[in-house]
Amino acid sequence: MTILDGNKISKDIKDEIAEEVIQIKSKGEKVPHLAAVLVGTDGASMTYVNSKVKDCEMVGFGSTLIDLPEETTEEKLLEIIQDLNTNDDIDGFIVQLPLPKHINEQKVLMAINPDKDVDGFHPVNVGKMTLDLPAFISATPFGILELLERYQIQTSGKHVVVIGRSHIVGRPMSILMSQKRKAGNATVTIAHSRTTNLENLTRQADIIIAALGIPEFLTGDMVKDGVTIVDVGITRIPDETKKRGYRLAGDVHFESVSPKAAYITPVPGGVGPMTRAMLLKNTLLARKRRN
Ligand code: GUN
Questions:
Q1: Distance in Å, CA 273 to ligand 1 centroid
Q2: Which among 28, 95, 179, 200 counts the fewest CB atoms within 10 Å?
Q3: Centre of ligand 1 from the C-alpha of residue 47, in Å
Q4: Which atom of ligand 1 is nearest to the CA of 138?
Q5: What sections of 97-138 are H helices per DSSP?
Q6: E strands, 56-178, where?
Q7: Which CATH number characterizes residue 242's domain?
Q8: Angle CA(12)–CA(13)–CA(18) in degrees, nearest 5?
Q9: What is the pLDDT of residue 49?
């Protein structure tokens, strides 16, 4: 069994990006600049956004954190997005999700200039991605493709079962892996909460992408020997024995699944760091496209 080491691969990618930033600087050109908008004080969101800003510093990007109170109105947030859309210093930006209940998430995502939409959530980018056109691919699916590619995992002709149909992971993942591309050409099944006899599907799968958000859902009896497992889940489970008061669990029951797997991502240290690295890659891409 081989661990798909997201920490190591993401470090390689960040080193490559940092090298490119040095080249950009040496030519006297502007370095990429990412802005992140956070509304409210959700613990996980604050951690993610702070990590994204820290990553920018590590590779030499500029970064701006726009930290807004929970009670920010939709109107105010849309104004801030318009400013970011037109601010020439900013190459790309993200609005961290989820947003407070009084703000219409769809309206907010639609307001982002697709050319600065480094999360790849805008319908223009989703549409282009679906049609094999150059587009920003959401960081998590992009990171999974990159991880499979760098470990040279064969996907062509393989049966991939994606569990979960979210707009951010499951849906794009199922499209990308069926396309004619690196880490693609697979036969893809997308399973979700209404799927019947899920175990029958997962037991046939060569590759399983678990992205349903239920901790330790996929167990050893549900997979075949030699399977490749990508665990996208990351849930905080209250745990008083831990100093921070919680432990992190993926969607995969690692103890029972890993002995049967050829390749498996750990949680933490698998998909998470890859997502962060690919946001940087998209920001670099945004800078290059604006040149
Ligand atoms: N919330 C959870 N994942 C993400 C992500 O990739 N981007 C944004 N903006 N919000 C998220």
A1: 13
A2: 28
A3: 12
A4: 6
A5: 105-111, 123-130
A6: 62-68, 92-95, 159-163
A7: 3.40.50.720
A8: 100
A9: 97
